[in-house]
Amino acid sequence: MPSNFRFKKRGALPYVSGDVIVGGDARLDFSQCQVDASNTDGGIIKAGTSSSPVTQDTANFKFVSFYFDDGATSGDSRGIYNRLYITGAGGGGESLRTFTTVSNVAGATAHGAHTSLSFGTSGSLTGLGVAGRNTLHIPNAALGGGTYAAMQAEIYSDGASSNPATATKLSFLRFANDGNATGIAAVEDKAFLFEITGGSSATGNMVYGATVRCDVLGSSKYLILSSAENALTISGIAVTAGAGSFTTMSLSDALTLSDGATIDNTAADTLTITETNIALAGAVSATSLTVGGGYGSTGVTISDAGVIQADGAISSGGAVTGASLTDGTVSIASGSVTGTWADLGTVTTVDIDGGSIDGVTIGANSAGAGTFTNLVASSGGLSVGADGAAGTLTVYPGTSSKGTTTLTMSDNSGNTVTNINVAAQASARTYTVPDAGADAAFLMTDSYKTWWSFAVGLAGEDTDGAGTNGAGLCGGAVDVATNSYNDGGGTVFVKVYDVGDTAWDDLSTSSTLTGWTSNYQLQPDAASEAIGDAFAIGFATKFCEVAFDDLSTGNGAVATYSNDAGKWQYSTGAGTWSDLTVYDGTDSTAQDGLRPLQRSGAISFAPPSDWAAVTLDGQEAYYIQWVFTAAELTQTALIDDTNKDEPFVVVPNADAFDAPFKGTIGKVRVTDMGATVHDQAIKFVVGNFTTGVFTEEFTWAASQYNDTFTPASPLAVAADDRVGILITDDGGSTNNPVIYAEFEATYLN
Questions:
Q1: Most buried residue, 245, 401, 403, 695, by CB count within 10 Å?
Q2: pLDDT of residue 490
Q3: Could you tell me if 636 and 524 are in contact, meaning their C-beta atoms sit under 8 angstroms apart?
Q4: Do 683 and 670 contact (CB within 8 A), yes or no?
Q5: Residues in the chain, pLDDT under 70
Q6: Helix (H) or strand (E) holding 627
């Protein structure tokens, strides 16, 4: 190959499939290249493009590699020398642009450019050695407008979604002391964070004394530099704003603090100001201010609580304000003593002609007499007398010489406290103590008993379903116009349920259910029933009886069974039911509700306390249901589809008794006031229809005019709770009792 390997012809080099080797003293010389202006992405040398770079996936690969060795003993050698001349007005650029792109992958480490200076194992320098050097040449002439810097550290956000929130750290400059741990420690002992050389320290210069001028967001700011490590030691500098913390601060001249500035010694040490004369133009806030030797050593001490203690006299030409004055003499030439005082000491004589005295105890150490227009105890209590000395509280009437009322406490052996409490009242009350004609005593108990009595009339369970006995409520009757099945114009809901369809339907459309042939059919066809099939009866308020009076009229029909088939339950929440104890007059077998609707009659029960309203087929009410537990039906029950008014329900109302006050019922006394005494045993319960709580069942023997019964647990009632007697079984008596009932009630406050 010739010593100068040149291609003078304009155009591309011929394709070379192997290496191009230049040997000897030959070189690649592009001095005579005629650059094509269209080749803006590599006018002289080019390898790949931004869309199709030269590709290689081998680890630790170098795309361009130069290694040089210069053994010269003087001068400056350069491995690569770049220089760009910008000769067009308005042009710009870089002599060298290095650009690394982490192309849409999660890389390990990356650098836009990395320049290093190393020394092998024994190299060194006698002059300057830097790993990277940026030099800004200021021409030997006036420099035109623009922003100039020898180095720029720039973070560039590519777009609106640029967000470094998840970066571990982000900084404009990073100073890393890295490598061998022993070497790191040695560098720490020697290195500076940065070095400023050249120039001088003078006012107006970049460096002046202990400050270095910076430009922060277009405004000149100054870094403060300390001349000692781990301390802020500043000489010849004025602090005009901000905060500082000092172990010791010595001033050769003046310390000037602007408005609102403070000197705060947060440690337990004392802040000492050594000066013969101190002038304070504003307020001083301190835990303690000591002047001279302090109190006790020919001086004055002022505490943060406002206590002034002095060994000499304190004189004032005007008002004296504060919290406490103790010891010595207070001399006020004129003015007044004002403020809130925590301790006035012992005052022999004081004349208070106005104002108020707040939060004090008068006579705490030595009691005396006092005369008041009004004595008001806004909280706490009013004490009269003292332990061992009886006190008397005398109350005068509104007119003179008309007597007084005196309250005096006598000793009691138990040394106990007597409390008189007034219960809550709906309105103002006046209680008058009558004239007993002589000395008398009050009779007081912790509670009292009384008998509540009321005539309740004819009583007996409803056996015909006509509502004539009011569900066993003594003297009761059914509102048959309102409390009847809603398909007959009333307000009672009746629903039927097919366990296979898992849906409730109205009784009037029962034929839509599987196994129900007719409408108004309470139960499925005989032999078609399944365990879980049911019918339910509901009303807007809690009730205590369901009555059927015409199952056998029109096209109505009663039910027949081969054995016990189901049970009664009441709703406790959406989809939940609990078993209900009833007296079932429609059950001709045993009246326990296991075979209902065999005849006209009524089902009576005590309304449960946890009975809850639920929604069936879109209608909310308090429901009871009869549900099949066995397939024993031989004939299904129907109501007459002509009248369509049954069943009826009975609600405890005027047939019960409203409790006059809060208490407990401990005994029940009943008397048969009828012309002929009842001829069968009568069973009944006493119930609080407001709370749904009932006593156990009592049995009143046949042919017995009166009797008294005691509940196992007293029945609790509140004022205005509805209380009544519910007949659960009259044994088919032909002579039902006309009851006069009495309840023994114990008052509770």
A1: 695
A2: 81
A3: yes
A4: no
A5: 1-18, 232-287, 292-293, 297, 304-306, 312-345, 359, 377-381, 388, 401, 413-414, 436, 441-447, 454-482, 488, 652-656, 730-734, 736, 749
A6: strand 619-628
CB 499 within 8 A of CB 490: no
320-321 and 337-338 as β-strands: parallel, antiparallel, unpaired? parallel
| Phi, psi values for residue 186, rounded to 5° | -70, -40
Instruction: Please name every residue paired with 620 in a beta bridge, in sequence order, or none if there are none.
Output: 615
DSSP-assigned beta bridge partners for residue 527? none
Neighbours of 641 (CB within 10 A): 16
Instruction: Outline where DSSP puts E strands in 426-575.
Output: 449-458, 493-498, 503-506, 534-539, 545-548, 560-561, 566-573
What tokens does 345 get? Answer: 């000491």
Max Cα-Cα span within the chain: 154
Average pLDDT, the chain: 79
Q: Please name the amino acid found at residue 547.
A: A
> What pLDDT score was predicted for residue 633?
96
- Phi and psi angles of residue 599, each rounded to the nearest 5 degrees, phi first: -160, 170
Instruction: Please state the φ and ψ torsions of residue 7, each to the nearest 5 degrees.
Output: -120, 105
C-alpha to C-alpha distance for 585 and 601, rounded to whole angstroms: 5
Pairing of strands 633-635, 601-604: unpaired
Q: What does the alpha-carbon distance between residue 538 and residue 494 come to, in Å, rounded to a whole number?
A: 6
**Coil, helix or strand for 470?**
helix
Q: Please, are residues 309 and 301 in contact by the beta-carbon 8 Å criterion?
A: yes
CA distances from 8 to 33, 39, 235, 305, 553 (A): 8, 18, 72, 100, 128
Q: Which of 634, 400, 661 is nearest to 526 (CA)?
A: 634
Distance CA 8, CA 281 (A): 91
**CATH number 2.60.34 is the correct assignment for the domain at 449-457+655-747:** no
What distance lies between CA 275 and its chain's CA centroid? 57
> For residue 746, how many other CB atoms are within 10 A of its CB?
15
Burial (CB < 10 A; 0-12, 13-18, 19+), residue 465, is buried
Domain limits of the chain? 449-457+655-747, 478-650
DSSP three-state, residue 151: coil
Following CA atoms 70, 75, 76, 82 in sequence, which dihedral angle do they give, to the nearest 10 degrees? -100
Number of H helices, E strands in the chain: 1, 36
